[in-house]
Amino acid sequence: MRGVGGPSADLPSTFAPLLIDWQRRAGRSGMPWQGSRDPYRVWLSEVMLQQTQVGTVLGYYARFLERFPTVRALAAAEGDEVMALWSGLGYYSRARNLHRCAQAVVEQHGGEFPSTAAGLETLPGIGASTAAAIASFCFGERVSIVDGNVRRVLTRLLAFEDDLAQTKPQRRLWELAQAMLPNNPSADDMTAYTQGLMDLGATVCTRSRPACGQCPMQGICRGHQTGDPQRFPVKTRTLKRRHESWWLLLVRLSEGPERVWLQRRPARGIWAGLYCPPVFESEQAACAGLPSAWLDLLVALDAVSHSLTHRELRLHPLLLELRSEPLPGELPPGQWVDAMRLGQHGLPAPVKLLLQTVWTPDLFAQP
Ligand code: SF4
Fold this sequence. Notes:
- The structure is a single chain.
- The protein contains 15 helices and eight strands.
- The chain has 367 residues and is of the alpha+beta class.
- Strands 1, 2, 3, 4, 5, 6, 7 and 8 form an eight-stranded mixed sheet that branches.
- The N and C termini lie far apart (59 Å).
- Mean pLDDT is 90; it is low at 1-8.
- Iron/sulfur cluster is lined by residues 153, 156-157, 204-205, 210-212, 215, 217-218, 221, 223-224, 229.
C-alpha cells in the first residue's frame, strides 16, 4: 500500500473547496463562539473543547464569560475563583494555564492577543494547533490546525502510512496540512475551512465509525479506497494506564454551620491546587493518626472509579461524622470549608460528585 511523497506530492486539490462548501452547507453552526473574531472568546472555547465534548462545554463557557467577560477580567481574578468555575471540566492544568496566559496577555501585550499563530504560540498553554485556530478564525491567517481530529481526517484522506508516534512523520503531516490549505482564501473562507476540519473529524470521520457514505471526501479519500480507513492514523505507542487505589477521609462537622475538612492538593501532580478530602494509600494509613474513639464512627462508602490520562483511580471514601470540633492535630492537615461555600472552591469532579452524594446538591450553588 502506498503512502504519500513530499509535502506537495499528489495532494487532492479539491479538498479545500469541497471542505469549505460542505462546512457552509452541513457543518456545525449556532455554537456561541462561532462567528466571533474576538480572540479571547475563541481562545476560551478552544481550550475548553480540547478534551471536553461540546455539550458539556456550553454551560461552562457561558458561566465563564459572564464572570470574566474580558481577558483583563480573567487576568485580575483570584486563582481559586478560576479553578472553582472550571471545577468538573477536568484536565485542570488547562485552567491554570488559562489564568497564566490571560495575565501574560495583559502584562506583556497590553491586553491584546498577538495576531499571528507564531505570536500566539509564545503564550503559556497555547500550542501550535490552538494558535492556528485563533489566528485563522480571528485574523484570517492561512495556517492549518492539526489536532487529534484533524490528524485522523488527514491520515485517512491521504492513507498516510507513517507512524505518528515519531516526530518526523508528525512534522511531515503538518507540512501536508499546510500544503492543502485553500489558495488565496478570504477571512471567511479560512473560518469555514478551519471549522470544516473540526466538524468533519468530530461528526463524520469519527474514531471508530467513519461515516464514509455521508462524507464529502469519499470520492478523493485514499483511506476509504483501501476499504479499511479505521487503521489510520498509524500510531505504535499505546498509552498504558497505571491502576491506583486512594482512600479519602470525608470528615463532616455538624456542630454550628455544617463544614467539611479539605486539603489543598500540592501544586504538582494529580488534581494539583484543587481542594480534596485527605488522601491515603490504604485504609490503615487513613485510620492510623485518628483518635481510637473515632474508628467506630468510620463508615466505608462504595468505591468509585475515575479515569485520568495516565491512571485509573479507585477511590474508597471513608465517612466520618463529628458532632463537635476536634482538638488541634486530631485530623490530618487541612481546613474546614463551610458546606454552603463548597461551590466557591475548585474540586475534582469525582470529589464533587462524592460530596453531592453524601450531602446535598444545593451545597454547590454558585455564589
Ligand atoms: Fe473519513 Fe471516510 Fe470521509 Fe475518508 S471518506 S475522510 S475515511 S469519513
